[in-house]
């Protein structure tokens, strides 16, 4: 007897997720992601559609070895007018012995059958049944994706059920109910799944596949499980065509931590959820969504002083789970909205007592910054942060710059290098074939370890040219800086009424290629000066936090 509390997880990131605009997986990308999903404990990993494109053919020709997951191929039922044995597309699903399952899509909405396919309704049912029967003895598991099932059921429930029955009666392990257009609401899902189960197709053989066009994909998937289905399909980070698919990163902890269901993912595996989410972003060269539930950097961030004070007493005051359960961490944000509680909590995270940072030490640090207020007016750290945020600094995101500010006040961060002067020249000219090109050249004078150096760097822009020149000098003294990468660069005007003389905030996100990411900020009326402040903080933070080598 099957465990009624066991839910099977089916990932379609590599196939349905690949339909996202701007996403183009290579075969190597697919293999890397598949290994991450296998290590996490996903039951089924849909690798793609054999025969559909060269990338999928390359992936299936040499797939990664699965240790916990079933590698699954996607295809479609036989075409009208062909036998299952003579359909090339259907039989392409049999060419890969490493497969643990095969999923076939077929129509379950009579409107789609007659309009999109242009075939008779009975012929469509034969296409489903004969395709399942043909594959059943030849592959470990056969699944039927009932495309447009919920839309079809709302208009012709009798025919939609016949489509499911054609697959079920011929031995399909799973019948997956698809909300293909993504327009259903949770109450629709609950009612229809209940009626399908009541009609004789058990929930232990039903799956759910939701799209997010009404922002209900996760809610609909959970509603389906509550109504009886025991397989959930989705993608990592909600990738997918149009508005995306159901986000497994949210579904998994909801199932396990909120609803009490069992999956193939153990508690120890669940702590890798953040890593898996960010691994996909790395492959896609995307900045992780800070606000993503469970795994985002802001998912357990606290900014308001009242909130922080309560969290210090008991985290459950403003946290629905312990962030460590999914591999995340609590973040106490410092900003102009922060009170003393925020500062105390953040300093505790840094291992520093508030009282250790004196007013005099803060004044010395601020005197080196170009600010409009008199540093001698600063009363304490809370007052300083609020004044700097008013200048345009944003320490709620630039946590590395905040840490450097405090540690410099304590004398814990040495001066790794000193920029004595620089000059940047931009040139626009025609190249050898007559095309206009713009180049930047930076000349810098830097003091490192008591010695002075001059260097020149070229780049696509002034910041790039400056970075190139600075790295030429610094990597000699600090070789590990060769691994430093600027993952994101953002510019924002913080005084829009001042026109071209407005103060500019530059935020830089950096990485060392080992999974460490940090954010720094610079503010100035000159965008290059703001950029250099943030860039120099980024370098100093890497050297301080991760060692000088």
Automatic annotation (TrEMBL):
Pfam families: HCS_D2, HMGL-like, LeuA_dimer. One of its GO terms (molecular function) is 2-isopropylmalate synthase activity. Gene3D superfamilies: 1.10.238.260, 3.30.160.270, Aldolase class I (3.20.20.70). Pathway: Amino-acid biosynthesis; L-isoleucine biosynthesis; 2-oxobutanoate from pyruvate: step 1/3. Keywords: Amino-acid biosynthesis, Branched-chain amino acid biosynthesis, Isoleucine biosynthesis, Transferase. Residues 7-271 form the Pyruvate carboxyltransferase domain. One of its GO terms (biological process) is L-leucine biosynthetic process. Transmembrane segments: none annotated. Its EC number is 2.3.3.21. InterPro entries: 2-isopropylmalate_synth_dimer, AIPM/Hcit_synth_CS, Aldolase_TIM, Citramal_synthase, LeuA/HCS_post-cat, LeuA_allosteric_dom_sf, PYR_CT. It is an enzyme of class 2 (transferase). It catalyses: pyruvate + acetyl-CoA + H2O = (3R)-citramalate + CoA + H(+). Belongs to the alpha-IPM synthase/homocitrate synthase family. NCBIfam families: citramal_synth (TIGR00977). This is Citramalate synthase. The lineage of its organism: Bacteria, Pseudomonadati, Pseudomonadota, Alphaproteobacteria, Rhodospirillales.
């Amino acid at each position: 007897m099957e465990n009624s509390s066991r839910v099977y997880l089916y990932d379609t990131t590599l196939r349905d997720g690949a339909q996202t605009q701007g996403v183009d997986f290579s075969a190597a990308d697919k293999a890397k992601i598949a290994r991450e999903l296998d290590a996490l404990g996903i039951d089924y990993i849909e690798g793609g559609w054999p025969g559909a494109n060269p990338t999928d053919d390359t992936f299936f020709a040499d797939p990664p070895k699965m240790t916990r997951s079933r590698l699954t191929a996607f295809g479609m039922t036989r075409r009208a007018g062909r036998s299952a044995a003579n359909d090339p597309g259907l039989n392409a699903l049999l060419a890969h012995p490493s497969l643990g399952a095969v999923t076939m899509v077929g129509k379950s909405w009579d409107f789609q059958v007659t309009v999109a396919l242009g075939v008779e309704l009975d012929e469509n049912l034969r296409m489903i049944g004969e395709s399942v029967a043909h594959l059943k003895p030849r592959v470990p598991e056969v699944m039927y994706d009932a495309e447009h099932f919920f839309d079809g059921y709302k208009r012709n429930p009798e025919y939609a059920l016949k489509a499911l029955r054609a697959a079920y009666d011929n031995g399909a392990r799973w019948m997956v109910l698809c909300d293909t257009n993504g327009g259903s609401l949770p109450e629709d899902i609950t009612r229809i799944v209940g009626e399908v189960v009541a009609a004789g197709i058990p929930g232990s053989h039903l799956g759910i596949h939701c799209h997010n066009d009404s922002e209900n994909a996760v809610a609909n998937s959970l509603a389906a499980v509550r109504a009886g289905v025991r397989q959930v399909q989705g993608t990592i980070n909600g990738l997918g065509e149009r508005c995306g698919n159901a986000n497994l990163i949210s579904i998994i902890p909801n199932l396990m931590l909120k609803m009490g269901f069992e999956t193939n993912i153990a508690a120890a595996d669940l702590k890798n959820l953040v890593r898996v989410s960010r691994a996909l972003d790395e492959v896609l060269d995307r900045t992780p969504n800070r606000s993503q539930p469970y795994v985002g950097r802001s998912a357990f961030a606290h900014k308001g002083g009242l909130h922080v004070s309560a969290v210090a007493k008991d985290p459950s005051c403003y946290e629905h789970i312990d962030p460590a359960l999914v591999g995340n961490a609590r973040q106490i944000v410092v900003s102009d909205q922060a009170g003393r509680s925020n500062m105390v909590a953040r300093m505790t995270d840094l291992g520093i007592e508030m009282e250790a940072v004196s007013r005099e030490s803060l004044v010395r640090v601020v005197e080196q910054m170009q600010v409009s207020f008199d540093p001698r007016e600063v009363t304490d750290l809370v007052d300083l942060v609020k004044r700097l945020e008013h200048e345009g600094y944003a320490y709620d995101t630039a946590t590395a710059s905040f840490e450097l500010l405090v540690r410099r006040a304590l004398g814990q961060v040495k001066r790794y290098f000193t920029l004595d002067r620089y000059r940047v020249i931009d040139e626009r000219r025609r190249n050898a074939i007559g095309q206009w090109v713009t180049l930047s050249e930076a000349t810098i004078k830097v003091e490192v370890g008591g010695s002075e150096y001059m260097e020149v760097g070229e780049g696509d822009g002034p910041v790039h040219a400056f970075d190139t020149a600075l790295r030429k000098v610094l990597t000699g003294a600090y070789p590990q800086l060769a691994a430093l990468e600027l993952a994101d660069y953002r510019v924002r005007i913080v005084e829009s009424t001042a026109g071209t003389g407005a103060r500019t905030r530059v935020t830089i996100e950096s990485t060392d290629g080992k999974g460490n990411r940090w954010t720094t900020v610079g503010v100035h009326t000159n965008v290059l000066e703001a950029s250099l402040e943030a860039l120099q903080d980024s370098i100093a933070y890497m050297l301080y936090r991760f060692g000088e080598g």
